Amino acid sequence: MATSKTTTGATGTKTGTAKTPVQPVFTPTPEAKAKSRQFRIIALAMWVVAIALEAVAIFWVLRPSVDEMAAAHGFPQWRWWLLIGFLVVIAVLAIVGSQLWKKSNRLDPASKKQPVRFFVQNQLGAIIALIAFVPLIVLIFLNKDMDGKQKGIAGGIGVVLAIGAMLAGINFHPLSQEQAWVESQVVTQLTGQDEVWWAPTGTVMHLCAGASDLKNSTGVQSGTVAQAFAATNKMQGITLKLDQEYTQCFPGKPVPDNMSDLIAWVQQARSARAGGATTAPTDANS
Predict the structure, then answer these.
(1) Which of 82, 88, 14, 92 lies closest to 46 in space, CA to CA?
(2) Are residues 38 and 80 both part of a single domain?
(3) What is the DSSP string of 162-185?
């Protein structure tokens, strides 16, 4: 599986204390970057097809000839069914493209130091859904050839599909370079290596396979923090119950004195506003 790496200036650790280095630049591995690029190309291709279908629906499906209208005594029913089919296919393309795009952002996240790019890159799926549906839906309701029932059903289906595609495209928990680096560093400083465990349906990573929260989970996986983020779009990061898990995973070892600071550092990295910096905690024993 493709992973991401960080360049650190990490220091060692003192007994009972986890130390944190100065934050460097997050750099995806070549494998992660290549996989991310592949996902983005496929997603963009699907979105282009979706918008092309929208254009066909607007400039052809919704514009029957006078002869067709006369023969069908109104808007041709076959065109109406074709329009419904176009709406469904556009939604499928938009949603699948959004999921691939989200996956690519997990492999190669944007930085919060570039707020505009961070927003656009993470919410592009929702933006594309609006572009692919709104003009078509408006023209359906304004169409003078369809009767009220045809417009109501087609327009209603379009609105439902548009909302679904837009919600699927929104990234409610966008991963940033800063967060990926911080969480990787906290795990490394606590355990000595960048390795975590997670359940396929879980939303958080754990410090070891023996963590109590994984007790009833099946198919538990392990890997780097970057691999865990890439495994599922639902992954939020490492568990914040680090005190409890550290005791479970390393029995007999004292919990680092600055554990609360490390947890706060993770929370800060997750909630920092665009462009905001995350400040590493100080050595509790220094």
Answers:
(1) 92
(2) yes
(3) HHHHHHHH--SS--BHHHHHHHHH
State whether the Cα torsion 91-93-95-98 is positive or negative. negative
Four-CA torsion 267, 29, 3, 282, nearest 10 degrees? -30
pLDDT tens for residues 162-193? 999 999 999 988 999 999 899 999 999 999 99
Strand (E) or helix (H) holding 4 = strand 4-6
Which residue type is seen at 114? Q
Same domain, 91 and 162: yes
- In sequence order, the β-bridge partners of residue 223 are 196
Q: How far separated are the first and last CA of the chain, in Å rounded?
A: 39
Question: pTM of the prediction?
Answer: 0.80
Query: In 3D, which of 21, 10, 171 has the Cα closest to residue 105?
Result: 171
Task: State the Cα–Cα distance between residues 226 and 36, nearest whole angstrom.
Answer: 13
Q: What domain range includes position 140?
A: 30-169
